[in-house]
Amino acid sequence: MDLNQDIMKLIMNSGAHPALGWKHCQRVFYLAKELAQQYTLDEEILYLACMLHDIGKYPGYALPNIDHVLRSKGIASNILKKYSYEQSKLNKVLDAIESHMYYSEPQGTEEAIYLRDANILDSIGNIGIMKIFSLIGHDELIETPEEAIARVQTFADALPKKVSTKNGKRIALKRREEMMRFLGGIRKQTSEYAWV
């Protein structure tokens, strides 16, 4: 049995929307590594945390009224214990998963901090716009193009402020500008959103 192959299969078979599944996890992992180039992170811990941070919200694993962060931690713990994963490393993976959301305080290990920033950054800029619009009708908060536009504006306004690392803040500003250019173009081309 190969841990990385098992994780990939779990995600691929989870029913995750393409914008939120395997490719999102890959983007977050590589972006976290890019953000932390000047540090020596434990790449295995970072990789496992990035791959498993959202598994608890995918249709195949989500449970009603259970926060996906807690569910993801439980699933990750079970998977890694099955492979007799070293407890001290397991704790770091679980800590990173626990603090990966924008509303969490940036704290803990470097792996946790960079996972959190990369996860936030994957929701802004051109990639954030693409994700939001691909979720129209698949997310209860994004049922219409108008709601997608409102979400783009909300993310552009709020998420860059949540990024904590120096490299992350630099990228967040650029990605916010991408979103603002998009919104400005849509506004002009739709008579202030009247023709969306």
TrEMBL record:
Name of the featured protein: Metal-dependent phosphohydrolase HD sub domain protein
CDD domains, sorted: HDc
InterPro entries reported for this sequence: HD/PDEase_dom (IPR003607), HD_domain (IPR006674), HDIG_dom (IPR006675)
Pfam families (UniProt xref): HD (PF01966)
HD domain mapped to chain residues: 21-124
Record organism: Syntrophobotulus glycolicus (strain DSM 8271 / FlGlyR)
Source species, domain of life: Bacteria
